[in-house]
């Protein structure tokens, strides 16, 4: 059998984010097929056969592709609204608009969200989609198609809500499903789209929205469903003081105890935010291996608070980074979250080393892969892993006087992406998507955002 064609990348700094945090001041990577075949210091061996492409990456830092662990693609159409609200008021303002989404809107929003992340170095995206208005079409299919066409790896967290206003929840009643509808549709989504293989482009998780929009029974049965199907579980947790109060009022316990009582702590679970956690909550996450998607910009935008990331990491909790939906983080970029995570966590408890630059990079790569259950195949640059990687340009005005390339990436201005690869396939070149046309997406998303605003105003 002929060897797979090889791509050689050399003369760049490399931050592998492997278990030892191995770095090379000047090194090389050899890609073969969809995998990293080898990497190391200095130039690639001169006698390599079947090299079809050789990239001189001088002036660049190579890192694993960024892994986003929490997002809501549909919100691309409702950016810049309710800009001065806390979470609950923001939800009440936006749910009536969100309840009018349909398949073309969701497809356009997914393209916008994915394009913005991909050109900023994201190679694995996730979409927590939980708004399924009656008659709105095949929303999960539209999201999966958008990611597949763009060549970005995706975890689709099939969300659900069954606690509308009449049951004491926040979403309007016409935007929620029944318990049975939610479970049946979720199981169908797993059957249609989940690929359990190590090189999967699409995986599906079971993801009821939050303690204040789903019934206890939906949480409990979702946990059972996910474990029966062998897929992961995701939801929002401990995001705000209001949520904490809601859980105490409704269930007589805090969010973490409530999750534990419904089968929602475990190494197959990750939760977005986890801002309001006491020491025993953190210990419960550590004991059970429950993961966290840290979303610093969204938490700041909604004045939710500062997650105790240094304490979570010290306890051994798996932590990744999340953009969160772009209605609460209008930039929609993950590479800027490396910097925001570092800065915000230093403000939290006034610790100058609360997060180091290397820890921030780890959150956005290996940490994310861990919480998505994919650390065996992505999240670090190691021989045998999938060739998901980014070349960041750090030799221009913005970064050239910073000697430490990881400090340049994390602390400096957003570094331009010269190339981004997913499974060995290049999807970005010089900041431009190779797999989709940004201008077309910009036009389509504007048209669909206006259509949604019109429909929502009529109702
Ligand atoms: Zn969210």
TrEMBL record:
Entry keyword annotation includes Nucleotide-binding: no
Enzyme Commission no: 3.5.4.32
InterPro entries in the cross-refs: Amidohydro-rel, Metal-dep_hydrolase_composite, Metal_Hydrolase, MTA/SAH_deaminase
Keywords associated with the record: Hydrolase
One GO MF term attached to the UniProt entry: 8-oxoguanine deaminase activity
Protein name as catalogued: 8-oxoguanine deaminase
Domain named Amidohydrolase-related: residues: 62-410
Catalytic EC class: hydrolase
SUPFAM superfamilies referenced in this protein's UniProt entry, alphabetically: Composite domain of metallo-dependent hydrolases, Metallo-dependent hydrolases
